[in-house]
Write a structure and sequence with these properties.
This protein is of the alpha/beta class and 292 residues long. The chain folds into 2 domains: 3-159, Rossmann fold (3-Layer(aba) Sandwich); 160-284, Hypothetical Protein Tm841, Chain: A,domain 3, CATH 3.30.1180.10. The chain is built from 11 helices and 13 strands. α1 links the parallel β1 and β2 (24-26). α3 packs across α4 (94-108), α5 (127-141) runs antiparallel to α6 (146-159) and α9 crosses α10.
Length: 292
């Protein structure tokens, strides 16, 4: 049985991983003023975040149902099963667009043929969804069947932890995640909030004074929530802050025994809302599982 894995550009996977595992990535769109950019294609996230530091504001647009339909229509004629793994529907309408596209294709081919297309809302963000996509694609490449892959995707989606901090609250304010007062006062007091993702939504956890203390607290939270961390692949996303990401990696390695990491710059569509200097950690609360 041939299985095709599709995701969106919010997944934060490297081009090398995407190519090696034959993952198709449907891009979201970024706008800056009158210009539009295809996420992950014709805009560099690091250059974009440098511009954000200079005051430029980027907005994002979800993938349209028509774009999804074009991609799905192509692969349902080639593969036995197509699985689209989406980032959180609570943060973007992209998942809903994929559902509309699927339903339209069901109507289109109602009297012609049947096809096997699944769309899954991970309720995860950035490498939180990216790691799930990667594991699903590895399973498909290894010859696992649809039921095994679907079970794994749902299991990892339900047990994926996200813990992150931002360097500047104004970006979250622009995205409607915090109030103007919180952003203003937070800037004055050097507040570095710690947030996580619950049921697909960004939820503030704590307010920490100084970045150093925020990173220390993140490591403590990973310790509290993680299981078998020395046997996991832990993801780290950063907002154009490789130095901060390496420091966080060193702390997780030294204090929690983590051995395997995937470190990636945030994709543009996520960085537009969290800003430069964001640092995030992704790990499983239950550890890895064998799906045989």
């Amino acid at each position: 049985m041939s299985i095709k894995i599709i995701t969106d550009s919010a997944c934060s996977l490297s081009k090398e991983v995407v190519e090696e595992l034959d993952i198709t990535v449907v891009p979201l769109t970024l706008q800056q003023g009158e210009e539009s950019f295809i996420d992950g294609v014709d805009i560099d996230p690091e250059a974009m975040m440098n511009e954000m530091k200079e005051g430029k504001v980027y907005k994002t647009s979800q993938v349209s149902p028509a774009a999804f339909e074009e991609v799905f229509d192509k692969y349902i004629n080639i593969y036995d099963t197509v699985i689209y793994i989406a980032f959180s529907s609570e943060i973007s309408g992209t998942y809903q667009g994929s559902v509309i596209a699927k339903n339209h294709l069901l109507e289109k081919y109602e009297d012609i043929k049947s096809f096997d297309l699944e769309v899954i809302d991970t309720k995860c963000v950035a490498l939180g969804s990216g790691l799930i996509v990667m594991w699903a694609a590895e399973m498909a490449k290894a010859g696992k069947n649809k039921e095994q892959i679907m079970e794994a995707v749902h299991y990892y989606s339900q047990n994926m932890e996200h813990v992150f901090t931002v360097d500047d609250l104004n970006y979250l304010y622009r995205g409607g995640r915090v109030s103007y007062t919180s952003a203003f006062v937070g800037g004055l007091l050097n507040i570095k909030p710690i947030l996580n993702v619950e049921e697909g939504k960004l939820i503030p956890l704590e307010k920490i004074r100084s970045r150093k203390k925020a990173l220390k607290r993140i490591v403590e939270i990973v310790r509290e929530r993680g299981v078998n961390l020395d046997k996991q692949l832990v993801g780290i996303n950063h907002g154009n802050d490789q130095e901060g990401a390496e420091l966080l990696r060193e702390m997780l390695e030294a204090e929690l025994g983590v051995k395997k990491f995937m470190i990636q710059t945030l994709p543009g569509v996520i960085a537009a809302h969290t800003g430069p200097g964001t640092l995030s950690v992704f790990f499983l609360s239950t550890g890895m599982k064998d799906f045989n």
